[in-house]
Design brief:
Helices cover 88% and strands 0% of the residues. By secondary structure, it is mainly α.
Amino acid sequence: MSSVFGAVLASFITVPFLVFFVVNMSIYKVTRKKRKAFKISTDVTTLFLFLSIERMTVEIWGQSYYWVLIILFISGCVLFTLLIWKNDLDMPLGKIFRLNWRLQFLLLTFGYFSLMAYGIIDRILKA
């Protein structure tokens, strides 16, 4: 049973958009709300994108650049906080965190596909 769970988890980390589609369909079937299903799917997929990009950097360059992802996340939180403070908006910290989390989804999606393309081209050129 643990090997099946491990294989499913490894598949989700390798292909994080599989998580997006599974969660999206599951939440939509339960709630019948497309917007809510999409938001929850992006939130869950962001975590798997963090893990996937970390594994891809280890495969491509042989070392982890997880600290770059953490700095990217923290700087996004600081940026959102400063923008909201400068515009005199009253927004709870949880909403700032959620906005940053969704921004990270967009940035990590771009990073995922960029690293995938780089990795494929690098392997082809080394062969």
